[in-house]
Design brief:
The chain contains ten helices and eleven strands. It has 285 residues and is α+β, with helices and mostly antiparallel strands. The protein has two domains: 172 residues, Jelly Rolls (Sandwich); 96 residues, Homeodomain-like (Arc Repressor Mutant, subunit A), CATH 1.10.10.60. Helix 6 packs across helix 7.
Length: 285
C-alpha cells in the first residue's frame, strides 16, 4: 500500500456524553444527546457543519448560532467557546473539517501568486457563517457521513481531497478568507505586536503564540526579537503589570479586582511581581 492510499488513523473519544470520532486530526464528528459546553483552543482553521441540533459559538461575547444544514468557517483562535445542543428530540451531530498548517502551506505553494486578491483583508471576527443552501458545502459534508456510520476509514488521499474542496469553497465565498487561511504569507502575515497586545491576558505558551500568528516557533522567536529585547514570556508579564498599574492608578481599582483581568492566576503572585517591577506593592498606590 503506497503512502497516498494509506488509511487514516481513526480515534474515538467520549467526553461527558459527547462522542467524538476523528480521522488524522482533520476530519471530526461529534454526537451528543445532552447540551455540552466546552472551551477549546481552536488551533487550526476549520469548517463546521451541523447535521442536527444546534451549535452556539461564542467569540468574546459575539454569538453565532448554527442549526441543521448550516455551516461556518472558524478561524484558529484561543477566545472561542462552544455549546452543543440537541434540538426537538434530535441528537446533536456535527462534522468538522480542519486545515492543518502543513496542508495550507502546500496549498499556498501551488497557487498562482499573480491571481491572489491584492486587497483581501483579515476579518476582525474569527467566526464567519457561510451562506445557506450552498450545494458545494452540502455535498462536501454529506459525502463524509458514511465514514462515521461504518468501520471503513477514509484514505489519506481522500482526506486531502476533502480539505481541498473545503478550502476552495471558502475562497469562492469571500476573497478576504485568503488573508485568514494564509496568515503565514505576505501581505497577510499577522503582526506579532498587535496579537500580543490583544491576547496578553490569556495563558498561552510561546508555541501557541507562534501558531496563532501563523509562524513556526523558530520564526516567531526571530520576529519577536525585532520588536523587543525581552523574551515573549517576560514581555507578557511586563504588559500585564503595566495594564494593572494603569487600572489601579487611573481607574481607582483594587489589586484584587484587576489581577485576574490582566491574566494573573493568583493575587499573591501578582503582588510579588508588581513589587518587583515597581518597588512597592499594588496596595500602596
Amino acid at each position: 500500500m503506497n503512502h497516498k492510499q494509506s488509511v487514516s488513523l481513526r480515534k474515538i473519544t467520549v467526553m461527558e456524553s459527547c462522542k467524538i470520532i476523528e480521522y488524522s486530526n482533520v476530519f471530526l464528528s461529534c454526537f451528543s444527546d445532552n447540551a455540552h459546553k466546552y472551551t477549546p483552543m481552536i488551533r487550526d482553521h476549520g469548517i463546521v457543519y451541523v447535521l442536527s441540533g444546534k451549535l452556539e459559538i461564542n467569540e468574546n461575547g459575539k454569538i453565532t448560532n448554527l442549526y441543521k444544514g448550516e455551516c461556518a468557517f472558524v478561524r484558529k483562535d484561543n477566545r472561542v467557546s462552544m455549546t452543543k445542543m440537541p434540538k426537538k428530540n434530535e441528537q446533536y451531530k456535527s462534522i468538522w473539517l480542519m486545515f492543518t498548517r502543513k496542508f495550507l502551506r502546500e496549498f499556498y505553494r501551488i497557487l498562482d501568486k499573480k491571481q491572489l486578491p491584492e486587497n483581501a483583508k483579515r476579518q476582525k471576527v474569527s467566526v464567519y457563517k457561510l451562506p445557506a443552501d450552498r450545494p458545494d458545502i452540502r455535498s462536501l459534508f454529506e459525502s463524509m457521513t458514511p465514514y462515521f456510520d461504518s468501520l471503513i476509514s477514509p484514505t489519506d488521499e481522500l482526506l486531502k481531497m476533502k480539505m481541498t474542496e473545503g478550502v476552495l469553497a471558502l475562497l469562492n465565498t469571500d476573497k478576504n478568507v485568503y488573508a485568514s487561511l494564509f496568515d503565514f504569507a505576505e501581505p497577510w502575515k499577522i503582526d506579532i505586536l498587535d496579537f500580543m497586545n490583544e491576547n496578553y491576558m490569556y495563558d498561552l505558551s510561546v508555541e501557541e503564540m507562534a501558531s496563532y500568528t501563523g509562524r513556526s516557533l523558530a520564526s516567531f522567536k526571530r520576529d519577536f526579537k525585532k520588536i523587543s529585547n525581552l523574551s515573549p514570556e517576560k514581555w507578557v508579564i511586563e504588559k500585564r503589570l503595566k495594564v494593572a498599574h494603569d487600572k489601579i492608578n487611573r481607574e481607582n481599582k483594587k489589586a484584587s479586582d484587576v489581577y485576574l483581568e490582566v491574566g494573573f492566576k493568583s493575587l499573591s503572585h501578582f503582588s510579588t511581581a508588581f513589587k518587583r517591577q515597581y518597588g512597592f506593592p499594588p496596595t500602596a498606590m
